[in-house]
Design brief:
The protein is α/β, with parallel strands linked by helices and 284 residues long. The chain has helices at 10-20, 39-43, 56-62, 80-93, 115-128, 142-145, 148-154, 171-183, 202-213, 224-233, 238-252, 262-267, 274-283; strands at 2-5, 28-32, 47-50, 68-71, 98-104, 132-137, 156-159, 190-194, 218-221. The structure holds NADP nicotinamide-adenine-dinucleotide phosphate (NAP). Residues 6-185 form the NAD(P)-binding domain.
Length: 284
């Protein structure tokens, strides 16, 4: 039995799809906060169980009979260390053979403010005594392709990433990596630094958007404060806008650079190019 937490999210759904290519649906448990909203997962034949990171009892019930667990990090920033600790405690009670966790690239040295909660979770995993694997995921290319429509509308793609080199990968490549780890024997304590095969700066990314769309759009680099204010002006809550601006400044310092190619080695093929991700996004 393989349990995927956060299975209703974008990454979780992709992991379930990859698992279904290799094992029967009866061996997969989709752990979701709200089963009512996950009818699509139930239709795939997998078991859908209720599991709220804020409700330890629900986690204990959801993990009954679990052999392996993929803990997909929560998106509730600021609450994640406690939420993930609750998942690890329930996994321990269930005596799982392995727990894999989606962390962030180079969590132990990353300048990103958001790395703190990931590092706390990694430490909790190590302290748990459970066999574990850490999937330190770099940025999803979709983080940037999502901004293409707004950039085309304003002829400008804004950020604070400077000339920082980014080795992002498509969400589906990280999902394939997680599924591969869940489906194969693991060495406890393995830490994967997962990132795309190619690197680009945001200016290069935006030039490719201009080339493929045939529209005038360029990258405009802002200071951290200006970028945070612009994101807030676009409707993002202040703390989230501040975190994103901090992340972009981290990018300028190389926080998302990686050339280890561990992701493509793990999944057995090259990662999707950023140019292909842009093409897919422009096709809508
Ligand atoms: N590498 C990157 O570039 C990047 C970018 C963004 C996020 N992330 C991290 O990677 C994770 C997965 O990415 P994603 O794209 O799949 O994010 P997503 O689509 O936002 O999915 C987040 C998942 O977390 C679940 N969740 C949130 N709070 C929960 C709770 N209290 N109990 C149970 N489940 C809870 C959500 O459940 P509901 O469906 O019920 O809301 C959802 O299934 C994110 O949560 C975040 O930690 C990484």
């Amino acid at each position: 039995m393989i349990v995927v937490t956060g299975a209703s999210g974008q990454l979780g759904k992709l992991v379930i799809q990859f698992l279904l290519e290799k094992i029967p649906a009866s061996g997969i448990i989709a752990a979701v906060r709200n089963p009512e909203k996950s009818k699509d997962l139930a239709e795939l034949g997998v078991q859908v169980r209720q599991a709220d990171y804020n409700d330890p009892a629900s986690l204990t019930t959801a993990f009954k009979g679990a052999e392996k667990i993929l803990l997909i990090s929560s998106n509730e920033i600021g609450q994640r260390a406690a939420q993930h600790s609750a998942v690890i405690a329930a996994a321990k009670q269930a005596e799982v053979k392995v727990i894999a966790y989606t962390s962030v690239l180079k969590a132990d040295t990353s300048p990103l403010a958001l790395a703190g909660e990931h590092l706390e979770t990694e430490q909790a995993l190590k302290a748990s005594g459970l066999p574990f694997v850490i999937l330190r995921n770099g940025w999803y290319t979709e983080n940037y392709t999502a901004s293409i429509p707004a950039a085309l509308a304003h002829n400008a793609f804004i950020g604070s990433a400077g000339d920082g080199k980014i080795a992002s990968a498509a969400r589906k490549d990280y999902a394939a990596a997680a599924a591969t780890v869940l489906l194969n024997p693991v060495i406890s304590g393995t830490i994967y630094e997962l990132a795309g095969d190619e690197t680009y700066t945001l200016a290069e990314f935006v030039n490719e958007v201009a080339k493929q769309s045939g529209k005038a759009v360029s990258y405009v680099n802002l200071s951290q404060d200006e970028f945070a204010a612009a994101l807030e002006g676009a409707g993002l809550p202040k703390p989230f806008a501040a975190l994103l601006a901090d992340s972009d400044v981290g990018v300028s310092k190389g926080a998302l650079f990686d050339d280890s190619h561990q992701l493509s080695k793990l999944i057995g093929h090259s990662t999707q190019s950023y140019s292909d991700s842009i093409k897919i996004a422009l096709q809508g």
